[in-house]
Amino acid sequence: MAAPLSVEVEFGGGAELLFDGVKKHQVTLPGQEEPWDIRNLLVWIKKNLLKERPELFIQGDSVRPGILVLINDADWELLVSTSGNSPPSTAPLAALRAS
């Protein structure tokens, strides 16, 4: 079982308006059977943080085109493409954290 994971989620460029105008959220993701990945994080964000107009943030099981997702100030799609063969939305978050 994956242990709880503390992360800071930050929204900018107008996306914070979908989250009651709050840019930074310090959250602790609960422990679960599988490791946390971007797809699971997006589902959690949609259920727990997103306050309005989910269609402006989520499309299918990822973010809408045009929304840049950064992990430690690096594009998440580039991080995953250089670290392994996992599709970006299924790469474990713990593997993407800075060492």
Could you describe the 3D structure shown?
- With 99 residues, the protein is of the alpha+beta class.
- 23% of the residues lie in helices and 20% in strands.
- It has 3 helices and 6 strands; from the N terminus they run ββαββββαα.
- It has helices at 38-48, 76-83, 93-96, and strands at 5-10, 24-29, 58-59, 62-63, 70-71, 74-75.
- It has a two-stranded antiparallel sheet. It has a two-stranded antiparallel sheet with strand order 3-4. Strands 5-6 form a two-stranded antiparallel sheet.
- Strand 5 (70-71) and strand 6 form a beta hairpin.
- The two termini are 22 Å apart.
- The model is unreliable at 95-99 (pLDDT under 50).
How would you briefly describe this protein structure?
The chain is α+β, with helices and mostly antiparallel strands. It is 23% helix and 20% strand.
Largest sheet: 2 strands, antiparallel
Strand composition percent: 15-25%
- For the secondary structure, the number of strands is 6
Give the structural class: alpha+beta
Query: If you compute it from the alpha carbons, what radius of gyration comes out, rounded to the nearest whole angstrom?
Result: 13 Å
Question: Ends: how far apart?
Answer: 22 Å
Subcellular location: Cytoplasm
Protein name: Ubiquitin-related modifier 1
Cross-link (Glycyl lysine isopeptide (Gly-Lys) (interchain with K-? in acceptor proteins)): 84
Pathway: tRNA modification; 5-methoxycarbonylmethyl-2-thiouridine-tRNA biosynthesis
